[in-house]
Specification:
The chain has about 180 residues and is of the alpha+beta class. The chain has a single domain, classed as 2-C-methyl-D-erythritol 2,4-cyclodiphosphate synthase (60s Ribosomal Protein L30, Chain: A), CATH 3.30.1330.50. About 30% of the residues lie in helices and about 25% in strands. The chain is built from six helices and seven strands, in the order ββββαααβαβαβα. Strands 4-1-7-5-6 form a five-stranded mixed beta sheet. Strands 2-3 form a two-stranded antiparallel sheet. Strand 5, helix 4 and strand 6 form a beta-alpha-beta unit. The longest helix is centred in the middle third of the chain and has 13 residues. The relative contact order is 0.23. Bound molecules: magnesium ion. Magnesium ion binds next to strand 1 and helix 1.
Length: about 180
């Protein structure tokens, strides 16, 4: 059954992403550190086919997952040179188009970023504002939590970033009122 056959009033989606963090080129294969569409000053950056924005990738997958669609890696394969270095806002915009096309709007979104460095705390409000703008919702509907990995494993050693996101979609209020 597709989304269109029998629309649910709500749909929930989960997104997860992990990227290795390597010294930024030319010292290593890391790309400049970008998270939630914002540039951060850091000596390591994500290894990825696109710009490696793990937060935008996890949000994109949460939206696609809520719709029951293929994930970001299937829609934008890393074997396709067209996506080399792509700004991940492109992927998010494509997922939002699918949300609208399926007749849903984003309710709220909750993200957990697990990262040793750089610290996102000082820029949390800026990140939430930026995400809210990209998603077209008020800032209050976007929550963001930063955690460390207690210095254990690759994430805790600063060699990777991990992001979890849950997102809730709903039918627009005016539409449900008319049914
Ligand atoms: Mg990714």
């Amino acid at each position: 059954m597709t989304v269109e056959d029998q629309p649910l009033p709500f749909r929930i989606g989960h997104g997860y992403d992990l990227h290795r963090l390597e010294p930024v080129a030319p010292a290593g294969e890391g790309r400049p550190f970008v998270l939630g569409g914002l540039a951060f000053d850091h000596d390591r950056g994500p290894v990825g086919h696109s710009d490696g924005d793990a937060l935008l990738h996890a949000i994109t997958d949460a939206l696609l997952g809520a719709l029951g669609l293929e994930d970001i890696g299937q829609l934008f394969p890393d074997t396709d040179p067209a996506w080399d270095g792509t700004d991940s806002r492109v992927f998010l915009a494509a997922a939002l188009d699918r949300v609208r096309h399926a007749g849903y709007v984003l309710g709220n979104l909750d993200a957990t970023v697990i990262l040793e460095r750089p610290k996102i705390g000082p820029r949390k409000a800026e990140l939430r504002r930026t995400l809210a703008t990209l998603l077209g919702v008020p800032m209050e509907r976007v929550n963001l939590k930063g955690k460390t990995h207690e210095r254990v494993d690759a994430v805790g050693e600063g060699r990777a970033i991990e992001v979890h996101v849950v997102a809730l979609l709903h039918r627009p209020a005016d539409e449900s009122a008319s049914t």
